[in-house]
Amino acid sequence: MIELLNIERVFLVGDEEVHALRQISFDVATGEYVAIMGSSGSGKSTLLNILGLLDRPDSGVYQLDSQRVSELDEDHLAEVRRHQIGFVFQFFHLIPRLTAFENVELPLTLAGVAPSLRKQKVTDALAAFGLRDRARHRPAQLSGGQRQRVAIARATIMEPKIILADEPTGNLDSSSGSEVINILEELNRLGITVIMVTHDHAIGARASRIIRMADGRIESDSRHR
Amino acid sequence: MRISDMFTFSVFAAIGNRGRTALMLLAVSIGVASVVLLVSLGESARQYVSNQFSSLGSNLLIVLPGRSETVGGPPPLLGITPRDLTIDDAETLARIAVVRRFSPLVVGAAPVSHRQKEREVTILGASRDIFAIRRMEIGQGVIWPANDNRFQAVCVLGSKVKSELFGNDNALGQKIRIGDYRFQVIGVMRPKASSLGDDLADMAIIPIASAQALFDTSSLFRIVVEAESEAEIAKAKEAIIRTIRARHDGEDDITVITQDAILATFDKIFKAMTLTVAGIATISLIVAGIIIMNVMLVAVSSRRAEIGLLKALGAPKRQIVYLFLTEAGAISMAGALCGLGLGGSILRLLAWFLPQFPIFFAPWSSIVAFTVALSTGLLFGILPAQKAADLGAAYALSRR
Ligand SMILES: Nc1ncnc2c1ncn2[C@@H]1O[C@H](COP(=O)(O)OP(=O)(O)OP(=O)(O)O)[C@@H](O)[C@H]1O
Ligand SMILES: [Mg+2]
After folding, report:
1. Percentage of residues of chain A with pLDDT beyond 90
2. Confidence at A49, pLDDT banded by 50, 70, 90
3. Cα–Cα dist B54/B51, whole Å
4. Which of A210, B184, B215, B398 places its Cα 20 to 30 Å from the Cα of B247?
5. Separation of A92 CA from ligand 2 center, angstroms?
6. Distances from the Cα of A165 to the Cα of A86, A95, A98, B292, angstroms
7. Is residue A62 within 8 Å of residue A4, measured between CB atoms?
8. Is A111 at the interface with chain B, CB within 8 A?
9. Per-residue pLDDT tens for B31-77?
10. Starting at the edge strand that comes first in sequence, how are the strands of the sheet with A217-223 ordered?
11. Cβ pair A89:B397 closer than 8 A
12. Mean pLDDT, residues A159-187 taken together
């Protein structure tokens, strides 16, 4: 479903060119569970941003569901993000003034879904992630693990085909971390493609495929299980 | 995104940032309050003057001897003075259908005395219709009978003259001396409420023929005419000019001033003044707009992550623009409401401190203030909103 061919991304820092991605080519099939690993600065986040259509490659072709998304305009990219991709971030990115319920509701609100349907979907989602009694809490009143579960509920509320997670456990203790990984694996079992950046080898090892990056290149790409 | 959701989101975003929002609210409300205040004061002044004018009587025309409207042309040759207006000229105006009433006027000053008290008083010679025309009410006594074209030694005193000569004593029936003649006081005027109409309190009014005898003149100072209605003022003016021209051998040697023309001039001046003042006050709204712009620009950088998130969740650029504009608009509207309240309260306070000056709230000022506030809010919100929408999603989400 995802095909990358010779993706390049160069950042200009002052007069200096930083090659964040060089000649990246790989495919991801529907339903895969991919861990992207590599040292700091190796280009993992940059790659994930391009996969999530948050950033454009400077060259190369990106096809999503056989559509050349690297050629779509901004509005179409937004639409693809809205319906196909769910994001989970290291720092949760919950809106502090909104309750857990409202944070999960936000993608539906942005998409213009009717309030009654929203209420039903969000209530179900919160229940599914064990957050029923946290609906009225604001992010500051939640633990790290709970925040990340709210974020995952938000990422899945639009029923995306892909979940992109950039170090989803990076800010969590090990028990809430593995709780979050369990949820992502459960989502993967339900058929959602999961691509996750992680530094944690134990977590990486649980994925069915590990892409290792070094200095903007793919160092290795291995499948197991 | 639904409009109601957009509104809720923006309003809560604004409420979520109390300090910032309060600053913008303050700026807008001061701007709106100053517009409302200044415009209302200007309007009150205009209304005050126009009320004062109508207390002089309504639908008035004043006929003056001499042509003062001459535009260009050589100055009149020496020795040629305009033909005087006479009582007979005035009498012919009675034949004009659209003229309701008129009064010829002769004005002069003469010593007036009663017993030991003597004062120099302005004497107004007029026909009895002057009382109706100038809306003057007789407090005590009567006006002289209709036929005024002969000498009658009677007078009506202004309230001030009466109290100066007679104090609290009864003046009716008393004889006073005006110049070389002895007059009997037959009436005393009631003091007028409005100050512009109160000049007559300081006068003695006598029949026109008596005034002509007193001042030994056959000419008139002017003629005051009241038209049948406002709509007929122009027609009356034309008819008066035509009538007098016929009597003056085809020469246009009079000037007719209409009250509405004077009033219109005043009105124009006051409106221009009010608009100028409103324009100056609008500058404070523009300042408010600049404050909104700067505060929102700061907001955009401090809400960078939120904007990145909205993009990640699939909000297109235009939606982010709308969200920020809604926020700016909502704050401007709220600020405008506060400003209206503030301006209204200050007006009420002023009205309470200055009861003699009728201060009122000009409704159109609130409409103007509201529209200007909203449009400056939106206008100055565009730049920050655009900046927010143009943020790169990946960059906005990064902690760089
Ligand atoms: N917006 C940017 N502007 C300039 N340079 C950038 C930008 N984003 C990334 N880079 C550079 O690109 C390279 C790859 O960055 P990236 O964030 O993808 O690394 P990473 O593998 O995610 O690292 P980490 O594990 O620390 O998150 C780095 O050298 C980084 O400095
Ligand atoms: Mg990273």
Report:
1. 95
2. very high
3. 5
4. B215
5. 14
6. 8, 18, 22, 37
7. yes
8. yes
9. 889 888 888 888 888 888 877 777 777 888 989 888 765 444 455 55
10. A85-88, A162-166, A193-197, A33-38, A209-214, A217-223
11. yes
12. 94
Distance, CA of B147 to CA of A126 (rounded, Å): 100
The residue type at A130: G
Q: pLDDT: is B200 or A43 the higher one?
A: A43
CB A221 within 8 A of CB A48: no
Helix B363-390, helix B18-54: angle, nearest 10: 150
Residue A47: list chain B partners with CB under 8 A.
none
Q: Is the shortest distance between the CB of A48 and ligand 1 below 6 Å? A: no
CB neighbour burial string for A16-33, b if at least 16 within 10 angstroms, e if fewer: eeeebbeebeeebeeebb
- Asked if B297 has any chain A CB less than 8 Å from its own CB, the reply is no
Distance in angstroms (rounded) separating the CA atoms of residues B49 and B196: 9
**Half-sphere exposure in the Cβ direction for B81 (13 Å, CA):** 4
Q: Tell me the CA–centroid distance for residue A224 and ligand 1, in Å.
A: 28
Residue B369 φ/ψ region, left for φ over 0, alpha for ψ in the -120 to 50 degree band, beta for the rest: alpha
Instruction: Quote the ligand 1 centre to A70 CA distance (angstroms).
Output: 20
Residues of chain B with pLDDT under 70: 68-82, 147-148, 193-198, 400
Closest Cα to residue B10, out of B337, B294, B376, B319?
B319
Q: Using CA atoms, how far apart are residues B319 and B310, in angstroms rounded to an integer? A: 9
**A65 CA → ligand 1 middle, Å:** 27
Q: What is the ipTM of this complex?
A: 0.95
Q: Measured between alpha carbons, how far is B291 from B25 in angstroms, rounded to an integer?
A: 10
B110 with B224: CB under 8 angstroms? no
For residue B394, the ligand 1 atom closest to its alpha carbon is: 1
B-chain CB neighbours of A55 within 8 Å are 392-394
Chain A nearest CA to B392, separation (Å): 7
Strands ordered across the beta sheet of A59-64? A16-28, A2-13, A59-64, A67-68
Say whether residue B11 is in contact with chain A using an 8 A CB cutoff. Answer: no
pLDDT tens, residue by residue, B314-366: 999 999 999 999 999 999 999 999 999 999 999 899 888 887 777 888 888 88
**Alpha carbon of A7 to those of A4, A27, A46, A74: distances in Å?**
7, 12, 11, 19
Note whether A92 contacts B: Cβ–Cβ < 8 A: no
- pLDDT tens digits, A195-214: 999 999 999 999 999 999 99
Q: Calculate mean pLDDT across residues A57-79.
A: 92
List, in order of start, the domains of chain A with CATH numbers: 2-223 (3.40.50.300)
Contacts of B398 in chain A (CB under 8 A): 45
Query: Could you give the count of Cα atoms lying within 13 Å of B353 in the half-sphere of its Cβ?
Result: 6
Whether B1 contacts chain A with CB within 8 A: yes
Structure tokens given for B227: 């038209």
Kindly state if the Cβ of A54 falls inside 6 Å of ligand 1.
no
Task: Report CB contact under 8 Å: B312, A45.
Answer: no
Q: Whose CA is nearest to atom 2 of ligand 1?
A: A11
Q: Determine the pLDDT at residue B101.
A: 92
Q: Is A11 in the pocket of ligand 1 (CB under 6 A)?
A: yes
Of B5, B314, B317, the CB nearest to A81: B314
SS (H, E, C) B114-161: ECCEEEEEEEEEECCHHHHHCCCCEEEECCCCCCCCCCCCEEEECHHH
Give A82's contacts in chain B (Cβ within 8 Å): 313-315
